[in-house]
C-alpha cells in the first residue's frame, strides 16, 4: 500500500497510540475531580499543555484544547465576532479557506456580519495590498490560512502581519492546520498573530483532538457553556489521553523537522518534474519558497478527479481529489475556482499529500503507476 493522502489525515504513530492507551488506562480520572485520581489526570493534562507550548514557542496559558481544526476555526472566528460585535461587524478572509472557515463566515453573514473575501492570483496567493485596501473602520477580524489545503500555497502571513501592525484593534487569526511540522514556521509564526488553529490528526495524533493558540491578553466568547474547563473558555471534560498523545506526536514531529521537510520536498520535486514531462496535465503546486513541501495538486485532463482517485485505489495507492471535506460531494476545487481555473480542468484535479514516512521507493512506484494510468486514459480520450 502507498498512502499519499496525509493532508486528509495521518496514520497514528505507534508510540503515540501507546501513550494514548497508557493514559486511558492509568490516568482515567476526571481532571476536575478533587481526589488523587483526578489530580493525577490534571497533572498529565497540564504537563502536556506545557510541552506543546514549549515546542511551539507559546506560553502554557496561551494553549487551549479543542476537538480539532473545525472546532478551533469556528471558535476563534465566532468567538471574536461575538466578543467584538459592539466595535464592528466586518471580517476579512480569503476566497480559498477551508470549509470550516468559509461556512462559519456564511453563518455570520446570516447574523448580519459583513465578510470581504480576498481574491487570489493564478498561483493561489492573496495580495497584501488587497488586504490593506479592504480594511475599514469597523473591521474586527482578519482570518487567513497559512497553507492552502488543496494546492499548498503559503499565504503571505508575515506581510499581512506587518500591515496589521498599524491596526492593533483588529484581531488576526491564522489556520495553521496544514502548516505545522513542514519546516516553514518562519513564514507563518509571528508575534502579531492573535490566534492559531491546529489539529492533531494532521501529525499522527488521534482524531478528535487539537489546540488553539490564544495570545496572552486576548479574549474569545466561549462557544461551549458548561463546567468551566479550560479556564472557562471551553467547557467539557478534557480528553486527557488524546491530549497526552498529541503532545507526544508533536514532539516527534518537531524532531529533525527541517530534515523531514527536505525529504518531502525531494519527493515533491520528483513528482512535479515528471508531471511536467507528460502531455495533457496541469500542475498547480509549484517548486518555490511560497509553496509547502508536501502537497502536489495536478490533473489528468479530461478525467474527473474521483475517477483518477479510484483508479489509483484499485492499485492500492491512496490519494484524494482536493479537500477531503468536500471530495464526497463531487464538487470542483474551491481553490481552483477562486484561481479562475476552467471548470473542466478544476473537476479533474487530484491531490498527492506527503509526510515524513513516505519514501523515494514509494514515489517511484507511484510514478510508474501514474504513467500507466495516464497512457490508459489518453487512449480512451
- Element pattern in H and E: EHHEHEHEHEHEHEEHHEEHEHHHEH
Largest sheet: 7 strands, mixed
User: How many domain modules?
Assistant: 2
CATH superfamily of the largest domain: Type I PLP-dependent aspartate aminotransferase-like (Major domain)
What is the strand tally?
Answer: 12
CATH C-level class of the largest domain:
Alpha Beta
CATH topology of the largest domain: Aspartate Aminotransferase, domain 2
Task: Describe this structure as you would to a colleague.
By secondary structure, the chain is α/β, with parallel strands linked by helices. The protein folds into two domains: 133 residues, Alpha-Beta Complex (Aspartate Aminotransferase, domain 1); 241 residues, Type I PLP-dependent aspartate aminotransferase-like (Major domain) (Aspartate Aminotransferase, domain 2). It is built from 14 helices and twelve strands. The protein has a seven-stranded mixed beta sheet, with helices on both faces. Strand 5, helix 6 and strand 6 form a beta-alpha-beta unit. Helix 1 runs antiparallel to helix 8, helix 3 runs parallel beside helix 4 and helix 9 packs parallel to helix 14. The chain is globular and about 70 Å long. It starts with a strand and ends with a helix. The model has no long low-confidence stretch (mean pLDDT 94).
Amino acid at each position: 500500500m502507498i498512502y499519499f493522502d496525509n493532508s486528509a489525515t495521518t496514520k497514528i504513530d505507534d508510540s503515540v497510540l501507546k501513550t494514548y492507551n497508557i493514559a486511558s488506562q492509568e490516568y482515567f480520572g476526571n481532571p476536575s475531580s478533587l481526589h488523587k485520581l483526578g489530580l493525577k489526570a490534571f497533572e498529565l493534562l497540564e504537563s502536556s499543555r506545557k510541552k506543546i507550548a514549549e515546542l511551539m514557542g507559546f506560553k502554557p496559558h496561551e494553549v487551549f484544547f479543542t476537538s480539532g481544526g473545525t472546532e478551533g476555526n469556528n471558535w476563534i472566528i465566532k468567538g471574536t465576532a461575538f466578543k467584538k460585535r459592539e466595535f464592528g461587524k466586518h471580517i476579512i478572509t480569503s476566497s480559498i479557506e477551508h470549509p470550516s472557515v468559509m461556512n462559519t463566515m456564511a453563518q455570520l453573514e446570516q447574523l448580519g456580519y459583513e465578510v470581504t473575501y480576498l481574491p487570489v492570483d493564478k498561483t493561489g496567493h492573496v495580495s497584501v495590498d488587497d488586504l490593506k485596501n479592504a480594511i475599514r473602520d469597523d473591521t474586527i477580524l482578519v482570518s487567513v490560512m497559512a497553507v492552502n489545503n488543496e494546492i499548498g500555497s503559503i499565504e503571505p502571513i508575515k506581510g499581512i502581519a506587518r500591515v496589521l501592525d498599524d491596526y492593533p484593534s483588529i484581531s488576526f487569526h491564522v489556520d495553521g492546520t496544514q502548516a505545522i511540522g513542514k519546516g516553514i514556521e518562519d513564514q507563518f509564526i509571528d508575534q502579531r498573530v492573535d490566534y492559531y488553529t491546529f489539529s492533531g490528526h494532521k501529525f499522527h495524533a488521534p482524531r478528535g483532538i487539537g489546540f488553539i493558540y490564544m495570545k496572552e491578553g486576548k479574549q474569545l466568547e466561549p462557544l461551549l457553556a458548561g463546567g468551566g474547563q479550560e479556564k472557562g473558555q471551553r467547557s467539557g471534560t478534557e480528553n486527557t489521553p488524546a491530549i497526552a498523545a498529541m503532545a507526544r506526536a508533536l514532539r516527534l514531529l518537531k524532531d529533525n523537522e527541517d530534515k523531514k521537510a527536505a525529504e518531502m520536498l525531494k519527493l515533491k520535486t520528483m513528482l512535479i518534474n515528471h508531471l511536467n514531462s507528460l502531455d495533457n496535465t496541469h500542475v498547480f503546486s509549484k517548486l518555490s519558497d511560497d509553496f509547502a513541501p508536501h502537497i502536489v495538486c495536478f490533473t489528468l485532463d479530461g478525467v474527473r478527479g474521483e475517477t483518477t482517485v479510484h483508479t489509483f485505489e484499485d492499485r492500492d495507492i491512496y490519494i484524494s481529489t482536493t479537500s477531503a471535506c468536500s471530495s464526497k460531494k463531487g464538487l470542483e476545487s474551491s481553490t481552483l475556482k477562486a484561481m479562475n481555473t476552467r471548470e473542466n480542468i478544476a473537476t479533474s484535479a487530484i491531490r498527492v499529500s506527503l509526510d515524513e514516512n513516505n519514501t523515494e521507493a514509494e514515489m517511484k512506484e507511484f510514478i510508474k503507476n501514474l504513467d500507466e494510468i495516464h497512457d490508459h486514459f489518453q487512449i480512451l480520450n
